[in-house]
Write a structure and sequence with these properties.
Blueprint: E1 9-18, E2 21-27, E3 38-39, E4 42-44, H1 64-77, E5 80-93, E6 99-111, E7 120-126, H2 128-131, H3 140-151
Parallel strand pairs: 1-6
Antiparallel strand pairs: 1-2, 1-4, 2-3, 2-7, 5-6
């Protein structure tokens, strides 16, 4: 039986690092969520991300977040990524009332040239300090600061809003 209280979108996002800079991209003006805001690549989990794959165990698929992330990064910005590691997660309710769970990851650039999908209008490689100049989705800058800590070998705690 379908229970709308248990239905969520699952999203994965990638903070991609290359030469000590992060890739951010501007969402288009017609996007339902966060139009014209700068963000990092990512997208929703789809049944086709795993249903046709062989199961990892008798009844389950493992590493689906990584598969999702690799697919979305190629689709949105045309890049291959590697060395994916978890940063944090968040939950929000979209304007269309769909609860969304987002898993945020740090990934190293592996190959490719940036080629934006039609939903993104601009991109730039920036340091976390430079990123402050861009009107970003709330929380993304703090995630970039968390990525800075990971790259410097520091342990990160949970996400904290910088004031």
């Amino acid at each position: 039986m379908y229970d709308k209280n248990k239905a969520h979108y699952i999203v994965a996002t990638a903070i991609i690092v290359k030469d000590d800079k992060y890739l951010i991209a501007k969402r288009g003006p017609n996007e339902k969520n966060f139009p014209n805001k700068w963000t990092v690549p990512g997208g929703k989990l789809e049944l086709n991300d795993y249903i046709k794959l062989p199961k990892s165990t008798k009844n389950q698929w493992y590493n689906i977040s990584q598969i999702l992330l690799e697919r979305e990064v190629v689709e949105e910005v045309g890049l291959k990524i590697k060395n994916i590691r978890y940063i944090c997660d968040l939950v929000f309710i979209r304007p269309d009332k769909i609860p969304t769970v987002t898993l945020s990851f740090l990934a190293d650039y592996a190959s490719g040239k940036v080629n934006l999908c039609q939903d993104l209008t601009e991109y730039v490689w920036v340091t976390s300090r430079q990123a402050k100049k861009y009107p970003m989705i709330e929380g993304i800058h703090e995630e970039l600061l968390m990525a800075d800590k990971i790259l410097r070998g520091h342990k990160i705690n949970k996400w904290r809003k910088k004031t």
